[in-house]
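User: Second chain of the day. Same drill as before.
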Amino acid sequence: FCFLAATSVLSAILATVFQVRGGEDRYYLGEEQTGRSASFTFVRSLGTFFILYGTYIPVSLFVTLEFVHIIQGFFMAWDERMRARGIPLGARSTNLNELLGSVHHVLSDKTGTLTENVMRYVACAVGGEVLDIRTDPDIMRKRAVEQKLEPARTMIRSLAVCHAVVPEIVSGKDSSKATGEYQGQSPDEVALVTSAREFGVELVERSLDSITLNEFGETKEYKTLAELEFNSDRKRMSVIAEEPDGTIRLYCKGADSIMYPLMRPESVPVTLQGDVDRFAVEGLRTLIFANKKLTKEQYDTWFQKFQAARNSLENREQLVADVSAEIEVDLDYVCCTAVEDKLQHDVPDTIAFLRKAGVRLWVLTGDKRETAENIGYSSKLLDRSMEVIHVQADSTESLRKSIDSACERFKIEVHHPTKSGIVRRASRSLKESLGMLANEEPMPGEARDFAVIIDGPSLAFAIEQLPEEFMSMTDYCKTVICCRVSPLQKAQVVRLVKERRQATTLAIGDGGNDVSMIQEADIGVGIHGKEGSQAVRAADYTTAEFRFLKRLMVVHGRYADVRSAGLINLSFYKNFVFTLQQFYFQFFDAFTGTTIHNEWYVTFYNLAITLLPPFAYALFEKDLRETTLEEFPESYAFNRDRLHFGFRSIMEFGLGYGVYHSLAVFFLTRWGLGTSQIFSNGQDGGFQLFSVALTSMVVFVVLIKFIIASRSVSWVMLASVVFGYLVLFLVPLVTSRTVSPELLGVQSMVYGNGRFWAVGLHIVVSAYVLDFAVLLVRKYYSKNITLELKEYEDQTYRVGCCTG
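Assistant: Same format as last time:
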């Protein structure tokens, strides 16, 4: 728009000079043009040139981009390599396709995202010993059934009572019966209830006010008096039930950090903390079960408060939580269960690739520190050569000391690394991969190979009190693991990264507790998991497994970024070349605003002649092969800084190639053909001949530019260029016989003239001198990662052809 305004104002000023001051010498323009005041001429000319030069702005670009985004979304959905369990990738917000190619931070949930969320009970700590069914599958039945040890029987009973699971019922013609399967919001609960059935206590039926169990061969009914639900703040749930003998008992389970303060110290075994830590180190998910016997009076008094809280019209949730907490005290320890959740397929390789691509990885989980750290090692978020910094603070000052100590140790300043540093590291990594690394000095920060693990309370201090110091420390981390975090904290971390580093963030999760994080991030990815569809409904993109994130970002995201950037650059280029002809011609017609292009050429230039090549480029351009992108993560690191698109690239294509090519076309056409030409039959070609010839030269040069700009020329691109030339030929052929008789016969005079083709060849060669000069300079003096990989591809292809 600025260029449009500048050329329009300049043309209006020159029109005023030519038509007012020199009007007496241009009487042939008529008094309408020369007999007006300078101010009137300026205003009138300004409006004329704004309309005449309006084709500078590629209005069709917006429509083209929208169609391209939609089709790119279809390409993603049709990619069979991103389909699992019959679920394709879903693109809900296709206008974010380009951002997928420039992600700086990936923030991920753990359970169900990195892991399968297929829970399997494996061990427990009960009665002062650890019972591990991996070493002895019958150990629980031996203790509970054969030896009839009460701690083991109480534990299994707790598993079968304290939950929100229901048996799956199938209705038949005669009756309804259970299928043996259980349904519940939490896979942990389903795994524990299923294991209780295997150990002798089966959940048979559940209603609103009762639970029916087959307890060691005997059917018993427990009346459900109250259920205190789990949420992310409480991190525990309780069931108050009346047992068959009339005893009222509260069954409670929750995270160890929450349950410790709620249990009576004398009931907790001295070995419990060691057992919990052992399970966590193995990457197992732990829950502590406890119970408490209630008298009738205690229950009645408490239940009145509970009912009042549930019926409250104001602040209901907080009141219910407060009343629930009143009774969940002085509990007796029962057991600590350990559940296994395996990693998804190819998660370690995907994470290792993203790390090499320079993507900062954040894992936000509600698990214990030890569990999260163990999963970090198994998923290659962490490796043994990496130093892990544990941040655990109970105040702002202690957190500040931990951060200052880490920054001083690794010589970190409180600022974020520059983009150029990221590109340099990517270039160095690529040279190592290709065996091209010379004796280069290590770069600052290159040896800072460490990770940070921070817990929820410390993270709260970091977000609220020390955000810049915390981000400065994490800037040089390859991995940050935040454990024991709430859904709100997940969203706060995403917002912190976005606001403090102005970086592109991608959040990925599978459950309802990940929705706030997904919505806060620039790009939200939802996984079709076992915790409902809330994350999928809130996400911009949906997928079946975490491993597809690599292909989504590195192949589809990078291609979308490169293609859209090329589409925008080339759209400005083609309009600049076309419209600048109008500007140059004004110097030869006293800036009267006469168009050098026939009105039908102006209409069909963007509508049909140059319609398909931008589509072909934006849908099928591949600057590098998919196999290369998936082999060398450095290509993504270089592309992430979007050096191929921005103000510089638009200036290069618009004011660089656009201006130079337009000058070559206009003045070489005028030099070679003149504004009119006398043929052997005495006819004068006139203005229309020069107009058609000039427009044809513009189209020749512009369409060839699309082919030269493409690093992989497809048959679709060639077909679109042929289509453009065909429309160029048909426009005067059709319009001359209907609405534009002045073009009648002009086409045969232009295309039947050998001089026209000779001048056209001269123009094409002269115009692309600049393009090839730029290519040579970049190849030998300003080589980047993409060019190095392109050479690697060519060498590999040649070697393959020779050996084949």
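The two ends are 54 Å apart (CA to CA).

User: Great, on to the next one.
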